[in-house]
Specification:
By secondary structure, the protein is of the alpha+beta class. It has one domain: Jann2411-like domain (Jann2411-like fold). Helix content is about 45%, strand content about 15%. It is built from six helices and six strands, in the order αββαααββαββα. It has a two-stranded antiparallel sheet. A two-stranded antiparallel ribbon has the order 3-4. Strands 5-6 form a two-stranded antiparallel ribbon. α3 crosses α4, α3 runs parallel beside α5 and α4 packs across α5. It is globular and about 70 Å long. The relative contact order is 0.16.
Amino acid sequence: MARLSSAPGEAASVALALVNSLHRGSTGATDDLLTPAEVTGWLRSRSLFQRAEPALGERDVWRLGQLRAAVRELFLACAEGRAADAGALHTVNLAAAGTPGAPSVEWSPEGPVRTWTTVSPGTFEEALATVAADAIDVVCGHRAPTVRRCEAHGCLRLFFREHARRRWCSTTCGDRVRAARHYRLQQHQVRSSG
């Protein structure tokens, strides 16, 4: 399957790009971050290492996967107008604490609230902290109301809705939905005329 174009907002949000590294492929869910080499390449492509790059291991792959799931939960909570899962909040806050002056998020009855912590950073911790801090900026900032789930059947990606009529993360998904609708209409017409 051809690589999907970036969803609206990925260029501005490394957290959204991380969430969308798990997407629908030709055979179902496709994870772009299954190996230490893939994770290293992904982090490098987004300039997330500010120091010498460490050798990553399977535990680091797992940790980034856990952060991705937690960020996805926070973004979906925004998109669905509900409170985020406490475990996801804990995971994001723990990752965000990996850099000095790190933000933290709490979910009050009125919605997400940003607070600040201070912890010493590490190289991989700093990369995780950058992603987590961006996720907190999204859910606590002006972009929170724009977080949307792609409406294409089977698509796993999220995006920032930049236009009122946008419903899909990419033209690929929009084309797929329109083609399926056209096919259903044609099938209905064939059955009706027969």
